[in-house]
Every structure is written in structure tokens, then in C-alpha cells.
Amino acid sequence: MIYLFKLKKIQASNGNVTHSSTSSSSGNSYEPMPSTSSDIDMSIPSTSTTYPIVQQQTFARKSSVTEDEVDQILSKMDGKVERKRNPMLCRHLGNSRCIHCTPLDPWDETLLKEPNIKHLSFHAYLRKLVSGVDKGKFSCLEDISCKIKPGCKDHPPWPQGICSKCQPTAVTLNRQSFRHVDNVTFENPNIVERFINYWRVTGHQRVGLLYGKHQPHLDVPLGIKASVSAIYEPPQEGSRDYVKFLPDPKREIVDEVAKGLGMQCVGWIFTDLVPLDPSAGTVRHLRHADNYFLSSHEVITAAHFQTKYPNPCKLAPSGNFGSKFTTVIVTGDKENQVHMEGYQVSNQCQALVRDDCLIPTKDSPELAYIKESSAKQYVPDVYFKEKDQYGNDVVKLGRPLPVEYLLVDCPVSTPNEPVFTFTNSNNPFPIENRFLEGHLQDFSSLSQYLQNFKDSQFLEAVSDFHLLIFLATMDMLPLRKVTLASKVERETEVGITVEQLILASASHGDISSSSSTISSKAIQNNEFFHSKWWSAIYSCSWTY
């Protein structure tokens, strides 16, 4: 079982997060890890440190906020759920409607009783807030703050003094009734299979970043789905029990390449697989209701990622509310088969982690711990409700705190008809940062990969996310922006150099460089230079 411990800095382009197996842990120690809180720094945007406590504010739209494309699409949709005529209850003509067949609002409780709809979609939640007579005049998208308001002149600064005007209020945790993403869809099973193959070969756990786009989810009223097209594997150290992120100086270039292809980072994925019967291909069922779904370390890491990727919202006083960033776990199910589970952490959890109030416990992955106030930091009390032995609701202080109160589940699926944004090849280009024989990215592997394509298939050959990253980040070629409309496209130094290096690697590796493989004509033809793949590479801000 994987959990994250001793979180280090995770910068916008890299990080040092370690997560370790709890399968060998024992005991029920609820002792917090005070050293963790001082190490956590996820390079949160500066705007995240000045979130006010919003009380009784109206939904004043911020015209300066640019919402995501999917939010703009959903804001223009009606969202009504059509219902068919009920033959038992409807007594009217076919061109009429009654209470039994009139369209339902997307937040109607009748829809929540459906087996596949557990949470309201975020846009359905917004419609519910503004649906009353007051049109949401006295509603607000509450973004809690656990920090002392700065600038109070009525007393000395903390710890010498504090007052009711600058003191953050106590927090009562509630189950979040909505979710920002209603489904995570992998375009095809090959995306996940290639990711899991690393564990199958080495037995080591692996972490990756999901790249894709957000789209309307038609199965949920006003829903949003994250469509994943590729998995980028950042530099990391892994073993059977843990994974540690390493600095990634090329992360910004990866984001630029993805942006040029119309994609963005929509989540992260990691494995927690322990073999049960290697001959049968079964794995242990470790995450369930009697144990835990996400450990406190993983919850804190997910909250940091969500803070780093905020969700723009015009109806939020700060301009951001929550996040569309999702967490996907590859683990064993109750039938001991490999499957995927998706989660997000609640907005309350995101605020607690952002303000450095939540830390993990040592030996109980299902529990987190609210820090106690110190001379350096004031921490408000955090409460949660649970039922006692008599079935009564009891309010308890979050020391410790079950992390299940902080989770929002998100289904993960693959379509019945696979979609391939990138080339579906039987011999794909190696994935980055895999330091294994046969998995290295170099000109030898590039030459071997291009052997599978003819000149007429050059665009198909370069339609590989990992190949584009390799071309955009390799140090051997000083790639710079060129004028694609010039007449020297066919004779550009980049194309000639690429060809010479490929041929040299091919001859060194005794690989045939026959005319059936891609030649300089294909490398330097106009079709490639005007394609979106070339534009994605040259959309980066190069620094050499």
C-alpha cells in the first residue's frame, strides 16, 4: 500500500515527494509528524495566500477572469434533464406536460437517487445557488481561510495578541455535495497499459502526470470529464514501497508542448500494486472501506496539486474556486484484478493544506492530524461529525481526523470505442525517464522507431507525445524558432542534422537504413513543418 511521507518541495516544474508502502506498518499510533509541516512547500501561487473569509457576498461576476473553455460551454447550456411521458401517471395529450414528465433541474434530488450519480456536478451546484427568487444574492462560494488576517493594529502581532477581527473562525468539515470533475476517461487502454508495464518489468511503483483536456460529460447533467490522451512520467526514484519525485528542469517545456497540442495537465496517477499470485496476474486488494482509500500523505499531496492548478471561476470573490485536478490510483480490486480509482479532495481540505494546517500521522494512513497552534502559527480548531455507539451525531476535534471526510470520488473509465489522439503503434517510442535497457530515449531508439514507418507515414510517426517531448528537450540539437513560410524549409539545418544523427545511429546499431524508412525528404517536407506537431515543438520558449 502506498502512502506519501515527508513531503519536500514540489515546484511548478519539479518536486520531491516520497511515498512509501504501509503493507509492513503495524500499530495504531496517531502521533502526528511535526517535521512534515515544515517541509511542505508546493510553490503555491502568491494569490493563494490572501484568500479572504467570504461572508454574505453576492455573486458579482468578475469580468477579468477567463474561465476554462468547458466552463464557458456549460454556462450556455440549459442543463434541464428531459423525461419521457409516464404512461401510468400522465393523463394529458402528447403536446402537453405535467409534473410527472416536465424536465428536471440538474440539481433535482430525483436525479441524485440514480445509481450512477453520487454528487452534483459543479455547474449544477452553481445553478442551484442562483435558482431562488433572490438569484443567489445572499449566496457565496465560500473559500475558507485558516490564517490570521494581516494588518490588525488593535494589538501586537501573534503570538503576543489576537482579536476576533483577525482570528480565523473554527472549521466544521462537511461532506462536499458537488465535484469539479465527474469522470476521468482514458482515450484507450494502451495509455494505462504502457504506464503499468514499468511495474510489470521492475516491480517498482510509478507516478505519472495526466495530459488531456476537459470536456462536457453527457452522462451527468452539466458534468465535466477529463479526457486523458497521454501520461508523462517525470524524473523519479522508485522501489516496491515508495516513489520519490526528482527535480524536473524540462517540465515547463513539456507543458508548452502539451499546450501547443491543445492539452493541459489534468491530473496525476500512481500505482499501488502488490502481487498476490504472479502466475495468475492477480494483485492484493489493499484499498477498501475497512482500511482506507487514500492515505493522509496522498491526500495532502493531492491537495497541493489541486492548489497549484486552481479552477478559474467568475462567481468566486478570489477569481478561483476549487480545482479540476484529479488523482488516479492503479491498485487491486476486490476480485484481485488491476483497476483504477479516481478521487479529488474537497475544497475544505485544499484550504487546510494550503494554509499548512494538516499533517499526516505516522502509522495510521487513514488518519490525518490538525496541527496545534504555536508561536509561529495560529491554527483554528477543526471539527468533524461522526456517529457514536448509540447512533447519535457527535462533534469531535480533528486530532486525529479521518481523511474520508476530505475525499470526493471520481469514476475512471475507458470508452467502448477507443480514441487515439496519438499514433497507435505496436512498437511505440520509449517513454521518458525510464532508465532501463530497451526503454532509453536516444537517437538509436529514434532510428529503430522510425524503421516502422515509410516516407508517406512521417506525420503518423511523429504523432507520438513522448517523441515530441524528446525532440523538444534534447540537448544535441539547438532547436530555435524558424520562419516556416520561408523557402528554405526543405534545407533547414535542423532537418539535415536530425537525418545525419539518425543514419549514424542506424549504422552504429546495424540497423537497416533502406529506402523503406523515413528519409530526409520526409523530415524536411512542407507537410510536416506546417503540421500541429511541429508547431507544438516550436511553441516552446527555448532557453539554451
TrEMBL record:
Record-annotated MPN domain positions: 184-321
GO terms, biological process: ubiquitin-dependent protein catabolic process
Gene3D superfamilies in UniProt: Cytidine Deaminase, domain 2 (3.40.140.10)
Residue spans of biased composition, Polar residues class: 34-46
Family per record: Belongs to the NPL4 family.
The species this protein was found in: Armadillidium nasatum
Cellular compartments per GO CC: nucleus
GO MF assignments: ubiquitin binding; ubiquitin protein ligase binding; zinc ion binding
Disordered, as annotated region: 15-46
PROSITE patterns: MPN (PS50249)
Full protein name: Nuclear protein localization protein 4 homolog
UniProt keyword annotations, A-Z: Metal-binding, Zinc, Zinc-finger
Pathway the protein takes part in: Protein degradation; proteasomal ubiquitin-dependent pathway
Composition bias, Low complexity: 15-29
Lineage: superkingdom: Eukaryota
Species classification: Eukaryota, Metazoa, Ecdysozoa, Arthropoda, Crustacea
